[in-house]
Description:
The complex is a heterodimer. By secondary structure, chain A is mainly alpha-helical. Chain A is 74% helix and 1% strand. Chain A has a domain at 1-147. By secondary structure, chain B is an all-alpha fold.
Amino acid sequence: MRYKSQSVAYWYFAVAMVLFGLQLVFGLLSAAKYLGPDPLLYILPFDVTKVIHTNLLIVWVLTGFMGATYWLIPDESRTELHSVKLAYLQLILWTGMGVTAIIGYLFRYGTGNKLLEQPLPHKIVIVICMLIFLYNISMTIKKSGRFTTTEGVLLIGLFSSAVLFFPALLHYENYTVSIFYRWWTIHLWVEGVWMMIMGSFLAYLLIRLSGADREVMEKWLYVIVGLVFIAGILGTAHHYYWVGVPQYWLPIGGLFSALEPAALAGMAAFAYAAMRRSGLAHPNTLALHWTIGSAVFALFGAGLLGLAHTWPAVNKWTHGTLITAMHGHAAFYGAYAMIVLAMITYVLPKMTNRAENGTTLGYWAFWLQLAGMFGMTLSFATAGLGQVYLERIMGMGYLDAQLKIQVHFLMLIATASVFTVGVALFIYDFFRYRPHFETSEETLVTTTGHERTA
Amino acid sequence: MTNRQARIFAIASTAIAALAFLVLTLDSHRQFGELTNADAITPEVTHGKDVWHKYNCINCHTLFGEGAYYAPDLTKITQHRGDAYLTAYMRDPSKFYDEKIHRRLMPTQDLSEKEIADLIKFLDWVANVDNQGWPPRPITVTGSGMSSGVVAQRQPEGTTPVDAEDDPRAKGEQIFRTAQPGCTSCHSIEPGVDMAGPSLAGMATRAEETLNSPEYEGDATDIEGYIRESIVAPSAHLVPGEMYSSGGTSFMPTGYDESLSEDELSQLTAYLATLK
Ligand code: HEM
Ligand code: HEM
Ligand SMILES: [Fe+2]
């Protein structure tokens, strides 16, 4: 750690870890209800556990993004944060918002709009937190006068995320129109501006870990951003097929969303090339596992499994089945959970007393999570294929088809348990070393062999 | 490629895509009114939508295929179920489904009568939105597939088309699968497979028994007459069962006497009379 104020990142990560653990509790509860019967039907029904599961996901991933940004900006701009107080205020407001929203959901206090269930007061607090955040990092950069491309992409990604949240604050009379704009937030986040955030974390990590040349990395970052938006913006239409919009969205959605994997392939290639060309310049091989893992798993979960059902002729049959859940899990985990875990793993040795190259427990956490999530993806996939075939093609009733695919739900719970053990180890490994926040200079070897400070 | 070229590529492609997207969005707004029957969005429909949101239905069900995957899609539910059925169901789902059999049950939601009525109006508005014919085949709540629910509004590929020379009973079978609301979303023709309506296996035999029993109060005198009466005036005689009727009103939709022609009705009746 080179700047004292970077220590705020630790507390963001700590909050993210706790919420991540909690997310899985509610995921497992939801999955158990697939098997049924449900003894908690009137205490904690499926809709409640599911809304808490997905909301905790969004909150912890964003907390992770914020923490990682508060770490990255001082490093890149070579200065202390503009205001540590504001950063803590933001964390308190944000966590308070998250926790009260979850408590509210227990009583079905929410908007009932998928993934945007946060009640209006909470949405307003979200906006306030975003404003504090953007102000704080902009001021930091402004004060330092040093603004790198990596930071630029990250900042635009964060700023656009805030802007794209606005359609979610409005009220629509027409349900179809409200769906139309829901995707401006959800789709343009995960397949647009969050990709910028992921790309910049990836570039940051690869530059540090592999010692790849900054010039080259930043050039590729631009190319990736270009690819993301060529495909991703018009690709929004893959959510418009069956919701009551004009027919021309079908070919547009099919064509452009089919191009979306290009950016993900670009990121994986970017990571691979950096490793091949520059090798390993940093002892933290565990962080490298997470970094490369994220690029590869995102290509699999978002790119490949997204492509699998994005064409209208396929989506017509798979739309709104467990196939969507298969893709949602693999994509979210690979792209956003893993990149946050990569940042945490990179940062932790600099803030706690632990070996740079990662603990044995840390490696167990990595492989168990990977195996578990892969198994969960397969379980959702086989359950989903069964559902599509029996319910959508053969015309079997929904409830009867679900009974026939029970075995895949058992497999889901088994693999999810493996995953949960992996996450538990990660969380335990996170908290078992006390943080210490001394600053120190670090050196970094570039490809040309010259020593320079990071 | 230089750094500068890469940057121009990023900015230009984003700008072009965003512009195209905005233009198409404006054009969509021009068409939303017609595609979604926006004039049919009455205050009741809007209130029904608020009820849908208030009770978090989206986190168990899907609507337009969006939501959660724990419970059936409801996009076209009002084409499968009548008002009376849905009203009674929303009051108490446990009278309709058994958690021991299907291992899932919708919790009773304590909706007011007004909320239920408007919710159904909202769902009916949804069912009539022009959404490119999705789902391609009806999604039913229960049923074993194969013999039931296989067909949508349109003829499925690979079935024999029924033409004027065919036997009336074959045409009747076709109507059984294609009438709106679909008979097959509530009735199977397999013994013991009761869905929202009783299985019609052995219909002819049962009709005869019913006609001969002292409880029968309808006007029919023969098997075909009874079946016909069951279709055009479902409440004339009620098959017992809490999930089939309430307060003397059958949950089977009325209006088939208007949506089906006289010929179609007799073909349908002739077909059902073959189920011995
Ligand atoms: C990191 C990137 C991605 C993430 C986190 C992600 C996540 C998700 C999630 C959570 C959903 C469900 C949304 C809902 O129903 O509310 C979804 C749906 C969908 N995604 Fe992605 N996705 C990503 C990338 C992609 C890509 C690259 C493609 C296409 C190549 C794609 C294709 C689809 C399609 C077609 C659906 C709709 C499924 C349906 O019809 O039910 N996704 N995605
Ligand atoms: C213990 C592990 C987990 C289990 C058992 C689990 C289970 C579930 C279940 C049962 C649902 C509801 C699907 C439905 O609507 O029917 C769900 C939704 C979802 N979960 Fe998980 N989950 C787990 C971990 C995760 C993780 C780690 C992530 C992301 C990083 C995640 C992301 C999501 C998303 C995005 C949805 C919404 C999907 C959609 O609507 O298409 N889950 N999960
Ligand atoms: Fe999408």
